[in-house]
Automatic annotation (TrEMBL):
The protein's name in its UniProt record: CPI1 protein
Keyword Transcription regulation: no
Transmembrane parts of this sequence: 17-37, 43-63, 84-113, 133-152
UniProt keyword Cell inner membrane present: no
GO MF term (any one): cycloeucalenol cycloisomerase activity
Organism: Symbiodinium necroappetens
Swiss-Prot/TrEMBL keywords: Membrane, Transmembrane, Transmembrane helix
Length: 169
């Protein structure tokens, strides 16, 4: 019996997304820190964001071995399901109850930190900064509170013991 248990495809996919997430966050940090955004128009933004999204979207097609899913059909791969979920949720979030306390706290912290981090961006203005940090973050946290557990539920098998997922199932 091996001492280290082999990662599941879901875990490998999440590790890939996390590692790549650090890369694209670093790219945006450079764009903002160097003021590159000052010279960008909508086509530049589309090129940057599309270019950064492409590896995540194309990985299930061209490099399924990265997540250990090369022997699975495309629609059964966790990375494909994750990409579809993120696309749907992103679309709904840009175009248009009860959860456990940890998810809500994590969602609120994420929302607050995102709101706080963009407050220095010179093109965002707030009439009431305090209200934006508190109330605005709370409403954004509701969006994240739904997203976090639903994403975790992809490829979840009943009987694995996660109480949050059992409650959602």
């Amino acid at each position: 019996m091996p001492l280290v248990q082999e990662l599941t495809a879901k875990e490998r996919c999440e590790n890939w997304f996390l590692a790549y997430g650090l890369f694209w966050i670093s790219c945006f940090a450079v764009i903002i820190a160097c003021g590159i955004y000052e010279n960008m128009n909508k086509w530049h933004y589309l090129l940057v964001t599309g270019g950064l999204a492409a590896p995540l979207c194309l990985q299930p097609f061209f490099l399924p071995s990265l997540t250990g899913e090369k022997d699975l059909p495309l629609l059964e791969r966790h990375c494909t399901k994750a990409n579809v979920w993120i696309a749907i949720y992103s679309f709904l979030g840009t175009s248009t109850s009860f959860f456990c306390v940890q998810v809500c706290v994590m969602a609120y912290c994420t929302a607050f930190l995102e709101t706080f981090s963009i407050s220095a961006f010179p093109y965002y203005t707030f009439d009431d900064r305090q209200q934006m940090y508190t109330v605005g973050s709370a409403f954004y946290a509701l969006y994240l509170a739904v997203s976090f557990p639903m994403f975790a539920r992809l490829d979840w098998k009943p009987g694995t013991g996660c109480c949050l997922l059992v409650a959602l199932w």
